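User: I'm putting together notes for a lab meeting next week and I want to include a structural view of one of the chains we've been expressing. I don't have a solved structure, so I'd like a prediction I can at least talk through. The sequence is below, exactly as it appears in our construct file.
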Amino acid sequence: MRATTLQQMRNFTTTAIMGFRRAGGLAGTTAVRNICDKSLFAFLLLAAITLILHHDILRHPFCHLDDPMYVTDNQAVLSGLTLDGVKHAFTDTYGFYHPVTWLSLMVDATIGKGRSTAFHATNLWFHILNSFLFYLLSKRLIASSAACLLGSVLFCVHPLSVESFVWISERKGIQATSFVLGALLLQLEKPYRIRPLVTFLYVCSFLSKPSGVLLPLWGWFAARNGVVRSGPFGGISGLQKPWLLTFLSAFAILLTIYSENDADAVKSSIFTDTWAVGADILVAAGINLCHFFAPVGLAPYYPRAASYSSAHLILGASAATFLLWCLISKGATPLRRLAVCWIVLTYIPACGAISIGLHLTADRYLYLPMLGIIWLLIDLLDSAQRRWLPGFPVVLTVLSMALGLAIPVSLRTANRWGSEETLWRHTIKVTSSNYMARIMLGLTYADANNITAAIDQFAEATRIKPSSRVAWQNLAESYLLATNVTAARECYEKIVLLDPDNPLALIKLGNIYSQSGDPELRDRAGKLLRRAVCLDSASLQALDDLSSYYMKHGHPKRAARVYRLYRRFP
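Assistant: Thanks for the context. Below is the predicted structure for the 570-residue chain, given as structure tokens.
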């Protein structure tokens, strides 16, 4: 019986090798195709790989980087899915306008009662779904089901994708990816008309995060190039009337610019310094491609360099030239052109008016372009196989080797997020002069009541970036916790010097001055508190402190007037 089983295994192996050779290696054996063509099998495999590798994420705590703004300090989210929460989601325009993301976070807060586990579980689900949708979309472009499956597994386990699903605040990116991939699949399924469901999915994607605002154009271009497969590539005529999706894309872009301008996030625009922005984009593109092929030294935050070296610019120019060659070369396949178009159309939104050169090299901004990079890699490997090694499965071999190298790096990257101290120490180690990592590490120490270590980190952050109000603010608060009022006063004076219209700094500095024995400083305290009230008349803290100041210094009538203003607010 055992000998028979061994003989059957030998026969199956021999058949598989012969099948690879007859098909040029890309399509593989009939057995492999039959397995990989089963969509349920692909979904279960991707889900199993993700959960086996990253189930520990469910125990990770919240992170100091943006999680307070999105969840832990956001009462609208923590209150769960309520009518007031829905109203807040669709009226809040601070930063990105992403009401669908707010609603998703509110649902998690309702289910998990504010615990991080529910948020992490939803992120993992979206990542599994994105990997599966990528597999289905790849089957529209690539004849080999085995190559499609290995490519989707590579996307699933690649270290660059870790930040997007392990970080709760990046829910908007992975959620938007799910909606836009679903819309594209339906758009290519019925290319002659735009279904209402397609439009709805695009709108949900744009209202989660506008990272895919240009992908409707890719769907139109893909339909024009016949990617509905009836063999390696099919032949269909173009998508009719793409004006609706073009209008939706343009509206989403304008809404994003308005929202980010409202939050004072538009700091570097192509209309103000074209050459600098162009250099930023080139350098970031080169660095991102290097991170894809050599994912070492990854970090949640990359500081902007004061200047770029010639090597950086050459790297970026080489990356841009390579993509241009892939697009216009005579032997370029339809898949290669579609892959390059995907990379460009998903990278442009990240290169908008926002965060040029500052966050553009962040790993999360390659989450969506990575799909195009994998398609491009498969196409180039297939071309090399057909030209030089027609009898060897180059594509499957290289993708399998890439998986073997990516999995341990992905595990280490994800595990760092389980401990903020480990995460930010690693970030400081791999990125020089990272003031934000110093701030985050200082907040971690402050939560652990290690005030001395926190002060050291905040002080280092102010040394690296003296113009950072956040660093000075945290340093001042740490000094107050350490009862060093003199040092705290100097920090608040620095903040007021950097930002004279900062109500919180005016209030803090006013309170410190009011406790001073110097009459001149006490008079100045009143001016600072009154200015804070003028800047933010709805600030209960400013009104309360100003009322207390008047009572303490013998002005009961003024205190009563301020107190009446205080009582107007619930």
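A couple of points you could mention at the meeting. The chain has 28 helices and no strands. The longest helix spans residues 116-141.

User: Perfect, that's what I needed.
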